[in-house]
Design a protein that fits this description.
globular, eight-stranded parallel β-barrel, two-stranded antiparallel sheet, glycosidase, alpha/beta
Amino acid sequence: MNSKKYHRKMNISRKIHKIVSFSLDEPLSQFRSFISVASSAGSERAIFRSIGGGDETMAESGGGIAHRLASWRCCCVFKELSFIERRRRTRTNLRNASMIPPFNKHLFGSRWRSLGVSYRILSMDAREKSTSTVLESSKHKRVLVFVVMPVDTFGADASGSLRIKRLKALTVSLKALKLAGVHGIAVEVWWGIVERFAPLEYNWGLYEDLFGLISESGLKLHVALYFHSNVHQHRKWGVSLPLWIVEIGKSNKDIYYRDISGLSNADYLTLGVDRLPLFYGRTALQCYEDFIVNFVNKFEPYIGCIIEEISVGLGPSGELRYPAHPLGDGRWQFPGIGEFQCYDKYMMEDLRIAACQVGKPEWGDRGPQNAGCYNSLPPGVPFFGDGQENFISDYGRFFLEWYSGKLICHADAILAKAANALRKYQQTVETSVLLVAKIGGVYWWYQTISHPAELTAGYYNTALRDGYDPLASMLSRHGAALHIPCLEMMDNENPLSYRCSPEGLLQQICKISKKRIHLIRRNANERLDKTGLRQILANCNHPQAEAVRSFTYFRMNEKIFSVENWNNFVPFVRMMNSGCRRSWKVKTLCAFPSPSRSANPSASPS
């Protein structure tokens, strides 16, 4: 390179230090004339004109390109254009490298400026071509973002009929989420609303209106078919079980789970009635199947094109677990170990049969008698320690295998019926819909040998046994994805004495599910702070998370649209859409500092 040409390009490198703003919603073709690569032979004048950097250009266009671009919605920062440093490498990679730096923890730190020297702007043509080469391996890293509808989406009007509340505000909110890059909306479809008054009488009117509103906004749907009640968690806006189920429960409380004290939990039907015709001649499994089939028939035009994921409720909060840690009624407080929920007469009868089959009829008369109570802590509970008939004794292993096995059989039966109803939609890629099953994130006492809180919830997972592997095997038989929570949590956000490890739990589940089932992830607590969102990004982009398909943000409310939270949420969504590591711009990444490792006392269990 001759001296004059070298100095001219060095001068360009010093001058071009601009902030270029543009809308990520616009097609790339509109920006080709704004950004060019100097390594191919462009003049100073052409380069400055392309980024709107010259005074002459600004005068001719009444403010020029930079002025127009500054008025658009979203911005990214391109820093330190250098056409000299590593020139050979730039030429070599021009056709197959985007040069947008990978997403990693250093970009969130305060040292981002020191990395700016190596950033280059390639032509948009070159960047589009690179998508099919360098970024091919990261396409599967794009994580679709769904946002759960507000808990009070529906409300009663003057006549007592349910309707969509705040329709205009909801419409604006949906459009804002679409512009932010959100892929779809997660809608909870309640058994207690649709089949509320009489068996086999379904009223889908509310959901027809809501699905139409969402699809008109250009958003996709994740539909969660829920067979539980949330009245205890949301007394004002909660949805009960169908009224005809509630009437049956008044005369027969054993259709619900019971603890060792005989207290029932009316949030979900006990597994003991799965195959008993107690509900106007139908079993519980038949009630669930009829509901699923009726839903599929009603919304057939939506399935595969608008409805992309269907989650089937399998227990309290829609999760496959026992209500061992009931919220809202004062029985349990974090970090209590919870209680086994097998004392209704139908579950106890099944336990007696199982005990007789192994030649130990005495084991069928009771559950563990030394397992403590809801708010017990592990050090003082013999069953979860080294007491007689503890969790590793012959009796302990028998009981826990039966207890957790009933849960997996319950999910197996429901998912088989759901998969059968959706089978015809799986034949082509265009109409395929993903079947989803949720589990709870029981992460407290995870760092103990016995994992007592998981055992009472029905997950036979200890330091000596992997309890999630049988679950993954069952889901893979039905082609179902696993919906897991706690993505925003870190181990150090809870007191050390509680032996919490949400990160360890996620790592275990990711390991056993890798290359076997899809993962769908969600947050357990509402987090819009930079630390929580950054943790979600890190977990979705974990090396062991290759099968992550989507993320469900819990949930939409007025907080998400406040200025500070929105300014955190929008870059987060864009980064999820871009693949987290390789396709995001500098300014957005810098909006999130490295998370503080200080404890967060506000964290709570899922």
